Amino acid sequence: MPSVVGLLEQHELAARRRVDGLREEADRIQAELAMAEREWSEWTIARERVGAVLSAPDSDSAGVATDVPEGVVTGAEVQASPPLVVTARSQVPMWREGLTGTALSVDYQRILASIEDRIRLGRGPLTCQEMAAVFGLDVVPAKVEGLRSKAKRLVSRGWLAEPAPGRFTLARSVSVPGGGS
């Protein structure tokens, strides 16, 4: 007869594998979403620029026709797209030039800030156990793995680098809210 602990471990392992699989799928979908948002942003910028050119007051002197066909959006009609709003449980966007840590949820901002503090003090990369202690969490596997998952997500999105397994540092020129980087 199998032991109760053995059965619990089997169920725990199956649940953990399911969570890992769903996280991988979520990461893939999030990366695809980031690409789609980038493309959307590029089309919005293109539309705004064309609208600005069409509504320029000196377009007559440049030999550009001022008659705008019906249905074409002019610069006067162009409105900026609303900024993306970060919610408490938002996903991690892909890092790109000009994007700051304020685009991340508070938990991810705390991770970036703690790593920046560590670098500023000249102590090098930060481990998840050290992060848990800095955040005042119990240094137990559940808390450490939660932080590791978030740190790995930041690595996969280009916000952090992992120069050695389990050791995290800022990537590129990531800007941290309230920080100097």
Question: What do you see in this structure?
Answer:
This protein is 49% helix and 6% strand. It is mainly α and 181 residues long. The protein has a 3-stranded antiparallel beta sheet. Helix 3 crosses helix 4 (141-156). The longest helix is centred in the N-terminal third of the chain and has 51 residues, at 4-54. It is flat.
Share in β-strands: 5-15%
Q: What's the N-to-C terminus distance?
A: 59 Å
Structural class per helix/strand content?
mainly alpha
Give me the oligomer status.
Answer: single chain
Q: Tell me roughly what share of residues is in helical segments.
A: 40-55%
Mean pLDDT across the residues is 79
Major sheet strand order: 1-3-2
Order of helices and strands: HHEHHEE
Cα-based radius of gyration, to the nearest Å: 24 Å
Total helical elements? 4
* Biggest sheet architecture: 3 strands, antiparallel
Uncertain residue segments: 75-89
Summarize the structure.
By secondary structure, this protein is mainly α. The chain has helices spanning 4-54, 106-120, 128-134, 141-156, and strands spanning 126-127, 160-164, 167-170.
What brief labels describe this structure?
49% helix; mainly alpha; 4 helices; 181 residues; 3-stranded antiparallel β-sheet
Write the layout of secondary structure elements.
Layout: H1 4-54, H2 106-120, E1 126-127, H3 128-134, H4 141-156, E2 160-164, E3 167-170
Antiparallel strand pairs: 1-3, 2-3
Helix pairs in contact: 3-4
